[in-house]
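User: For my dataset I need records formatted as: sequence, then structure tokens, nothing else. Please produce one.
Assistant:
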Amino acid sequence: MSAPTRDRRGARRRTGQAAGLSALLLLACIAPVAGDIGSCGQPVEELDARKFFSFKAQWDCARCAECGLGTRACDAACSFTTAPEFPSGCYPLVHDGEVCLHRLMEASCDEYRGYVADEGASTPTECNFCPLDEAP
């Protein structure tokens, strides 16, 4: 075997090892710290209902127009004036609201149709951060 061939194989092996080590370091550095699970390192901050529902209404209205949806929920979103309060005992965090809005932004028109349906509307699980207790 010639020296250049051996050098190339050695260089490829070192490159592969460096890439593996880099990936391992990246995973170790971005792993959540104990006590930070689920918040992505953000400080604990309660979600402001007025800001959240205002932005959600704007997004819902835009998606209803984009997807050609004309439901009562779309009309309510497009004529949004006041934000509801979160249910008593429910204290979602800013991160919860961000995850919900991200899910809505990723939804297809078919999925959105289900979210704003006049009957049997669904809620993405990411947006169900204040589930109602079931009656016995």
